[in-house]
Amino acid sequence: MQRDTAGYTVALAASMKHIYLGNPGETYFSTSDIGWVVGHSYIIYGPLINGMATIMYEGLPIRPDAGIWWSLVEKYKVTVMFSAPTAARVLKKQDPAFLTKYDLSSLKALFLAGEPLDEPTATWIGGALNKPIIDNYWQTETGWPIMAICNGVEPAPTKFGSPGKAVYGYDVKLIDETTGEEITEPNRKGVIAVNGPLPPGCLQTVWGDDKRYVSTYWSSIHNKVMYSTFDWGVKDEDGYFFILGRTDDVINVAGHRLGTREIEESISSHPNVAEVAVVGVADPLKGQVAVAFAVLKDPSKVAGPDDAKALEAEIMKVVDGQLGAVARPASVRFVSVLPKTRSGKVLRRAIQAVCEGRDAGDLTTMEDPAALAQIKDLVS
């Protein structure tokens, strides 16, 4: 992808000041993998352009123990921290004493991005750290947030489960998948799209392939020239957006279209669930069924097969109550870890492939191959 370098710099500087509340002379800590877009944008260029010190840390949030990040916050008096919901869910399984062991008085807020932030995780870590948890939504292609709470411009309340409102420079719309028309009434699901032109910092083409850039990003919204995020969302009556997942993460169960993200959020609300991934698996009768893989806060609760069945039934009852019986997963399997990339993204396509007996494809970015092997053993 190609960007205008000067515009990219403007976007990063504005983002650091207006969204991430960083000031010159302060210390910034992004826990992201250096190889991901956050690596160069918000570990190196963004903080340094803004006159801040920045911490480069490579490693897991639980090695040598689950207090490593917070010890760095105390040592370097970190004022702004940026991480991912996945990391918060990993910490959810650890001893909560590590979250209060260190002096975090310098920390103004913890920002989370990279995938939808579910309300149970946001509520948990916000309470554990006693710090504001601020979600924001953007893509590699945009280089800086599409949606956020711009407290550096005008303070506004956060809503757990929402990354906030459209950031200045982005003309964000919700589009009806079937008709291509803009959705104006609140709380109705649509595809998140942006009217052009995109603001500074966003991609301008795909390197060496202008046609692909146009056909991929600007031609999928029913003959309208709009940038598609390929994400589902809804907007409430206050203008806050809620991300429901990728448009290709929709499964068709007996004619009912269900978002895997919605099922994951429901399962996550069970008090013993730390992390969960839901995938659609081919089924000869229903077309597809939802299959869930959950990591527990307390694995001893499923020490025996009867315990596992009882907890599975509990979780299914939660989904029934929140989303209806049609959204109930065909099964809930309990695993010790989910397959992820080194930057923390859950490899849902690989999980789906294993469940369907297909080749999982390129797994060079996977952090722990044993995680996928565990799933293969469960479904074989």
Give an overview of the whole structure.
- The chain is of the alpha/beta class and 380 residues long.
- The longest helix has 19 residues, at 305-323.
- It folds into 3 domains: 20-135, 3-Layer(aba) Sandwich (Rossmann fold); 172-245, Luciferase, domain 3, CATH 2.30.38; 249-379, ANL, C-terminal domain (GMP Synthetase, Chain A, domain 3, 2-Layer Sandwich).
- The protein has helices at 5-18, 37-49, 68-76, 85-92, 119-129, 210-217, 260-268, 305-323, 348-355, 369-379, and strands spanning 27-30, 53-55, 80-83, 109-112, 133-135, 147-148, 165-166, 171-175, 190-195, 226-235, 241-246, 250-253, 256-259, 273-283, 287-296, 331-335.
- The radius of gyration is 21 Å and the shape is globular.
- The strands form 5 sheets. The protein has a 5-stranded parallel sheet, with helices on both faces.
- The two termini are 40 Å apart.
- Helix 7 packs across helix 8 and helix 9 runs parallel beside helix 10.
- A hairpin with a 2-residue loop joins strand 12 (250-253) and strand 13.
Major β-sheet profile: 5 strands, parallel
CATH architecture of the largest domain: 2-Layer Sandwich
**Poorly predicted ranges:** none
Structural shape = globular
Per CATH, the class of the largest domain reads Alpha Beta
Indicate the mean pLDDT.
91
Short description:
With 380 residues, this protein is of the alpha/beta class. The protein contains 10 helices and 16 strands.
